[in-house]
Amino acid sequence: MIQAKCKISRRLGVNVFPKCGKVVARRPYPPGPKKKRRTAQLSEYGKEMREKQKLRYLYNLREKQFGNYVRNILTRRGGSEDAAVALIQALERRLDNAVFRLGFAATRQQARQMVSHGHFLVNQKRTTVPSYQIKKGDEVALRLQSRQKTLFKELGPRLKSYQSPVWLELDAEKLTGKIVGDPSLEEAAPPVEMSSIFEFYSR
């Protein structure tokens, strides 16, 4: 599974799966058993699709899910710079992403599983929907019943040295996080060309 994900990262030229390491070396041949030289240049469509795939895999979303986010933004805002900010904010405000950003999970995939299994509360209510959109003033907390599980036993000490994004306020002692601002495109810094994504879905 990890090897297959690393092949995706190498194909895209950027590490979209943390367990593949910090650097994805781009080799002169595509992933797979046959080491063929890269000769053909990507078309404009191919480049746009590659950028779309980078962001989709980065946030651990299915194709339909990701497409719905982009189309909703396009319907409301068009292809302006504001659209890029709106898209990143919508992705960052997903509950599973907030759990990841707060340091409760090592990856977004793990965060999605944790949320789906009911380990987290939003404003003291158990929430099992990874796509749930959190907003300013909300509090995300690890359930008391979940804190004794092996998965979370070492979480407190580890979080003491963890630095969350500025739009989140982490309490490592209480294992809670509060949404205190808005996610920014600059801080999220996705390794993609955002305009290409909107061009892809505008075709």
Automatic annotation (TrEMBL):
GO molecular function, one term: rRNA binding
InterPro entries in alphabetical order: Ribosomal_uS4, Ribosomal_uS4_bac-type, Ribosomal_uS4_CS, Ribosomal_uS4_N, S4_RNA-bd, S4_RNA-bd_sf
GO CC term (a single one): small ribosomal subunit
Small ribosomal subunit protein uS4 N-terminal domain segment(s): 1-92
Bilayer-spanning residue ranges: none
Keywords: Ribonucleoprotein, Ribosomal protein, RNA-binding, rRNA-binding
Keyword Acyltransferase applies: no
CDD domains recorded: S4
Residue stretches making up the RNA-binding S4 domain: 93-157
Function statement: With S5 and S12 plays an important role in translational accuracy. One of the primary rRNA binding proteins, it binds directly to 16S rRNA where it nucleates assembly of the body of the 30S subunit.
Family matches, as PANTHER family: 30S 40S RIBOSOMAL PROTEIN, SMALL RIBOSOMAL SUBUNIT PROTEIN US4M
Protein name: Small ribosomal subunit protein uS4
Protein source organism: Candidatus Wildermuthbacteria bacterium RIFCSPHIGHO2_02_FULL_47_17
